[in-house]
Specification:
alpha/beta; 11 helices; binds nicotinamide-adenine-dinucleotide; Rossmann fold; 9-stranded parallel beta sheet; 3-stranded mixed beta sheet; 369 residues; globular
């Protein structure tokens, strides 16, 4: 039987797009996700899915209701969350079944559980992480736990079980390179993280390189640029612009809005990650970029134009401390694997505006593209 792919963070924004793409390509997928505030099991509801909460674990999963109350997972019977004693047995059943996705609610820091799950497959795509830069500036504890301890836990389990076999894709970020004020940074550019989130992600890369050098662990790193699209958490820039435009409330823009970012649609990122998974070389780094480079203020104006809303909503606010002024990846290497950007900025934004308009205006939480 074909081995499944293990996708960590598969209930989050990019992770759920990666799961979609993997299923499209005929894989069975085991998701490991801690169900933090950024996760939503409904992102995977169109797949044949089973969701398990290991019974002997502390309660990672909880759902915050609209009224602010918190309920444990298993009270959501309609979501088919199950408490499970025998995770290995459940994985064996899954592999023999017609199901497409098995979700195990747990944190990647749980090393003993990683040892139990990873023995079923040496194919891992690791996306689980805390991802909001502003939160990391307030306090980086969760970032240290998820990114650094979590990565050590899973890569060490992988090494102990599989040695030099298999393929481990670490999803990093363009932010590990720090700001690129001129030209483009290729895959050999030195790491120079400038905020706590980027430092935590760079730590993962340092560990990955040390494992490649010391043990020959078959790791490959991908660094996507700024992604946008349906299912991104409300806290992020593009959903904030759309939500505030819909509500007619001020759209906060940091500093003078002149920070430059390169934007790419989530589906293109997911295809890029899967292309690297299927065709990339072990030990290599691949950038996933695009040419849609804009100042933040230009992006806001573009979205407002597309939504027919007034620029009067723009409100400049105190800049983020240490705010990087520009990111720009060279991405020729991944083009050689046959990957291309397929969604224009305009098409991607149109789909994203539609998604959030349904979500915010009709109040549904289960709206998909
Ligand atoms: N979104 C982007 O623009 C972007 C760009 C480049 C790289 N990345 C990287 O891609 C990955 C996914 O980003 P995203 O935007 O989808 O994030 P997200 O915040 O939407 O989702 C992260 C997911 O990981 C899970 N998670 C967090 N900590 C965990 C832990 N300790 N154990 C298990 N699961 C955990 C969360 O529950 C959530 O489902 C991250 O590694 C991020 O650094 C994102």
């Amino acid at each position: 039987m074909r081995k499944p792919i293990i996708v960590t963070g598969g209930l989050g924004f990019l992770g759920s797009w990666v799961v979609d793409e993997a299923i499209k390509r005929g894989y069975k997928v085991i998701v490991i996700d801690a169900l933090t505030y950024a996760a939503n099991p409904e992102y995977l509801k169109d797949h044949k899915i089973r969701i398990l909460q290991p019974e002997d674990r502390i309660l990672w999963g909880k759902i915050v209701l609209r009224d602010g109350n918190i309920k444990p997972l298993w009270e959501f019977k309609e979501q088919n969350f199950e408490r499970c004693k025998d995770i290995e047995g459940a994985i064996r059943d899954f592999l023999e079944s017609e199901l497409e996705v098995l979700v195990i609610i747990d944190s990647v820091e749980d090393h003993e559980m990683m040892l139990r799950i990873l023995k079923f497959s040496p194919y891992i795509i690791h996306l689980a992480a805390e991802t909001h830069v502003d939160k990391s500036i307030e306090s980086a504890w969760d970032f240290v736990r998820s990114e650094i301890i979590g990565f050590y836990s899973i890569i060490e389990a992988f090494r102990r079980i599989w040695g030099k076999e298999g393929f481990f894709v670490l999803v990093s970020t363009d932010e590990v390179l720090g700001e690129i004020m001129e030209g483009e940074a290729d895959e050999s550019y030195p790491l120079k993280p400038r905020n706590p989130y980027a430092a935590a992600k760079a730590s993962q890369e340092h560990f990955a390189q040390s494992y490649i050098n010391t043990y020959g662990t078959p790791i490959t790193i991908v660094r996507p640029t700024n992604a946008f699209g349906p299912r991104q958490h409300d806290e992020k820039f593009v959903p904030t612009i759309i939500r505030n435009a819909l509500m007619g409330t001020p759209i906060p823009v940091y500093g003078n809005g002149k920070q430059r970012r390169v934007w790419i649609y989530a589906e293109d990122v997911a295809r890029g990650i899967m292309e690297v998974f299927e065709k990339g070389e072990k030990f290599e780094i691949y950038h996933i970029g695009s040419d849609y480079e804009l100042e933040n203020i230009e992006l806001v104006k573009m979205i407002l134009r597309m939504m027919g809303k007034s620029e009067d909503l723009i409100s400049f606010v105190k800049d983020r401390p240490g705010h990087d002024r520009r990111y720009r990846l060279a991405y020729n290497k991944i083009l050689k694997l046959g990957w291309r950007v397929e969604t224009t900025l305009e098409e991607g934004l149109k789909a994203t505006i539609e998604y959030y308009t349904k979500k915010y205006v009709s109040g549904g939480s289960s709206v998909r593209r």
